[in-house]
Amino acid sequence: MEETPIKLLFTQGPSTTARAVLLVLISITLMTLDHRRQHLQTLREGLSLLVAPIEFLVDLPVDIGHWIADSLASRQQLMEENARLHSQNLLMQARSLKNADLESENQRLRELLESSVKVADRVLIAEIYKVDLDPYKHLIRINKTARHGVYIDQPLLDAHGIMGQVIETMPAYSTARLITDPGHSIPIQVSRNGLRTIATGSGKINQIDLPYLPNNTDIQVGDLLVTSGLGGVYPPGYPLAHVTEIERAPELEFARIKAEPTAQLNRSREVLLVWSGDRIKHMKTRQLSTTAAEDKDSENREP
Model's pTM, two decimal places? Predict the structure, then answer.
């Protein structure tokens, strides 16, 4: 079938090269006008509004991926930072507790040293490292032994008063009985008037008893009880307790008198071992004998 003249008219047109040249010229013209007079700014803004949602949808998966990655990284960093700060906090708390404990220990040692000056006898600081758990016995263990000069019946005290006496020495430790032990007795006197009697342990850590004073005895609440020096165990004048309660019953021969120890029996961690009088002389003699024996043994070994 032959094509009609009208159809040929519409199918025939400029060549591809002519079309390309024409488009280039139009583009250059539009760019020149836009650069100089901004005629296409409104059109460009309108097109940007149309394209913006498409750009947002295209970039959305990438943005979501970056947000998730940043969130996970931030959470991990926060967790690591939190763990680090928690560890530092625990460390600082431990150091603070240790510093507080050292400060308390230094204070106790200063009090002990001041007490040793007041005692004016030979003393040695020992540490309590074990307490007997038997409720009917008030026994403690200290880290000084016979090789430090500790002996049976040696008195112990803290910065506030008498605590007890040594009852056993072993190679690694020594055992002492506190003044509140039911099996302990100590000769004492009332500091106010010199009245002498015996104080015994009650089995309670904060109480000793004076069971042998008659009802008409001159003793008052608040009186200070000190060691009398009788019996040869405790040197005289060491504070022991304050009278806290007096009960006088007519039907009883003796008054019921209770006193509270001046020593901090359930709180002290360091104690003073005391030597006095003949014990100091005995220790010096023993040390001289030991030194002489070592010197003699050294001379015998020389060629």
Answer: 0.58
